[in-house]
């Protein structure tokens, strides 16, 4: 590597690769924000939303359910038949497709019509006749102020969506209306986000040791199981059925001066749809990792030390590099870095004679820093949740900790999970690390949403067919997230 490149890389390593002491600072600030966010009038960058999901599946649920998992760039659908035996899954059918980019800016009616139509077409493809009323678990992974287990109010769009006519509305009602426009009657006994659904999927299949779920894909978020006595802002007219409730942290908005924020991050934020918001997500999630890498590569190119003084035209275009390309480079373990070479030739437009091993090594080093920073920050916040739950106290016999995980990055980037677990070990030590188990649930959040619908249905059956989850009008119990001041 040239001297300038090596000096720049060392500078970026110092700023992006956090030692254990710095990661503990991030964990500690996250804990402070978490505790403040749990308070009714807390002024926190974490919304800490009660989800009204106070019953998670235990493997005894049964019935026939559809599910819709919508929360990013991909729509995932499932048809699930749970048998009467313990953890018995008689049938599961799945489908996924990209959400058309143009729907991100269209009216909400068009977006929800798309969701309903896709489920109807999916049922037709798997030869499930639509007769009577369909029961659907709805996984809706955007900030929702939950009123009951199956209703709430959309607080804001994130992840590049800006559909008019949805903010302030009940997503369950919007979906029900869309099916009615198609002439199909549905029952939606549960609406939740993908983290709670991921937790439910692991609970159904693998038992009750999972208390935290984290998703890292296009966006990122985490939920965990909290004692209701620690939730002064849960809806007081909602009559809980157990002593616990899932809490949606909404950690995309987590902000701290301890976070390793670069000039490139600040530039990305300034040009984003929501400047000054969703700081943690913009540092870590798939929607942004490719763009962060592009901006760093561009900076290296402009000072003349990466591409021999040339600035590839591709790197001047916003969005020209996506996270999947960063992931391929991050996982490039071939001796000649062939995946990285393919990226440089096919995406960046580097001539084969200039596509040297040295250049590939430099580019991989940059992409590794972008991915590893995300993994380290993910580790710090997960440890924050474990610490809050009292599950890292080595003075007591340590319990088995199951972390339910999902999302394209956690599933498809093996080196990302290696970095994340290594950071957890650095922060907590060997004992806690040895008792931590990551579970990727079969069927993912779509299966979990069906399981939550099944658990809600089972409870309603046992309580009588006239049961409706208690609700009340939304008021000021959930304060607005504190905006980032300097991001």
From TrEMBL:
E.C. numbers: 2.7.1.-
Domain Hexokinase N-terminal: 9-204
GO biological process: glucose metabolic process; glycolytic process; intracellular glucose homeostasis
Stored InterPro entries: ATPase_NBD (IPR043129), Hexokinase (IPR001312), Hexokinase_C (IPR022673), Hexokinase_N (IPR022672)
Record's catalysed reaction(s): a D-hexose + ATP = a D-hexose 6-phosphate + ADP + H(+); D-fructose + ATP = D-fructose 6-phosphate + ADP + H(+)
Domain Hexokinase C-terminal: 212-454
Record keywords: ATP-binding, Glycolysis, Kinase, Nucleotide-binding, Transferase
Record bears the keyword Kinase: yes
Domain of life: Eukaryota
Residue spans crossing the bilayer: none
Pathway: Carbohydrate metabolism; hexose metabolism; Carbohydrate degradation; glycolysis; D-glyceraldehyde 3-phosphate and glycerone phosphate from D-glucose: step 1/4
Record keyword DNA damage present: no
Any Pfam family matching the protein: Hexokinase_1
PROSITE patterns, per database record: HEXOKINASE_2 (PS51748)
Molecular function (Gene Ontology), one example: ATP binding
PANTHER family cross-referenced by the UniProt entry: HEXOKINASE, HEXOKINASE TYPE 1-RELATED
Family membership noted in the UniProt record: Belongs to the hexokinase family.
Full protein name: Phosphotransferase
Organism name: Apatococcus lobatus
């Amino acid at each position: 590597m040239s001297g300038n490149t090596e000096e720049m890389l060392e500078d970026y390593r110092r700023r992006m690769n956090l030692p254990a002491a710095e990661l503990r600072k991030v964990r500690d600030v996250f804990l402070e924000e978490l505790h403040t966010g749990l308070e009714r009038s807390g002024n926190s960058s974490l919304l800490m939303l009660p989800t009204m999901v106070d019953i998670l599946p235990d493997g005894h649920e049964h019935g026939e359910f559809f599910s819709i998992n919508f929360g990013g760039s991909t729509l995932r659908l499932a048809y699930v038949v749970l048998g009467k035996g313990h953890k018995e899954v008689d049938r599961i059918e799945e489908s996924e497709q990209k959400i058309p980019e143009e729907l991100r800016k269209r009216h909400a009616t068009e977006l929800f019509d798309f969701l309903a139509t896709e489920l109807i077409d999916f049922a037709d493809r798997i030869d499930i006749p639509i007769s009577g009323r369909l029961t659907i678990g709805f996984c809706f992974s955007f900030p929702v102020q939950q009123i009951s287990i199956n209703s709430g109010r959309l607080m804001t769009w994130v992840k590049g969506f800006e559909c008019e006519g949805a903010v302030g509305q009940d997503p369950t009602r919007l979906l029900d209306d869309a099916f009615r426009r198609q002439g199909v009657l549905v029952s939606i006994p549960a609406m939740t986000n993908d983290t709670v659904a991921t937790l439910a999927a692991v609970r159904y299949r693998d038992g009750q040791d999972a208390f935290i779920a984290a998703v890292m894909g296009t966006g990122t978020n985490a939920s965990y199981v909290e004692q209701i006595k620690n939730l002064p802002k849960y809806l007081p007219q909602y009559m809980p059925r157990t002593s616990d409730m899932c809490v949606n942290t909404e950690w995309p908005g987590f902000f701290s001066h301890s976070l390793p924020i670069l000039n490139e991050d600040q530039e990305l934020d300034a040009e984003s749809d929501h400047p000054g918001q969703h700081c943690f997500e913009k540092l870590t999630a798939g929607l942004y990792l490719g763009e962060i890498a592009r901006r760093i590569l561009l900076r290296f190119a402009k000072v003349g030390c990466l591409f021999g003084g040339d600035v590839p035209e591709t790197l001047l275009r916003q969005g020209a590099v996506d996270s999947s390309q960063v992931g391929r480079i991050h996982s490039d373990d071939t001796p000649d870095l062939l995946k990285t070479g393919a990226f440089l030739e096919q995406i960046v437009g580097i001539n084969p004679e200039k596509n040297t091993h040295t250049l590939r090594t430099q580019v991989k080093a940059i992409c590794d820093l972008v991915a590893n920073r995300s993994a380290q920050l993910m580790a710090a916040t997960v440890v924050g949740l474990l610490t809050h739950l009292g599950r890292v106290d080595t003075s007591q016999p340590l319990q088995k900790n199951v972390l339910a995980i999902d999302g394209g990055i956690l599933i498809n980037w093996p080196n990302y999970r290696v970095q994340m677990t290594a950071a957890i070990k650095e922060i907590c030590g060997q004992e806690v690390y040895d008792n931590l188990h990551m579970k990727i649930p079969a069927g993912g959040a779509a299966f979990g949403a069906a399981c939550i619908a099944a658990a809600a249905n089972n409870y309603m059956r046992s309580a009588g067919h006239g049961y409706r989850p208690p609700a009340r009008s939304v008021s000021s119990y959930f304060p607005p997230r504190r905006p980032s001041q300097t991001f």
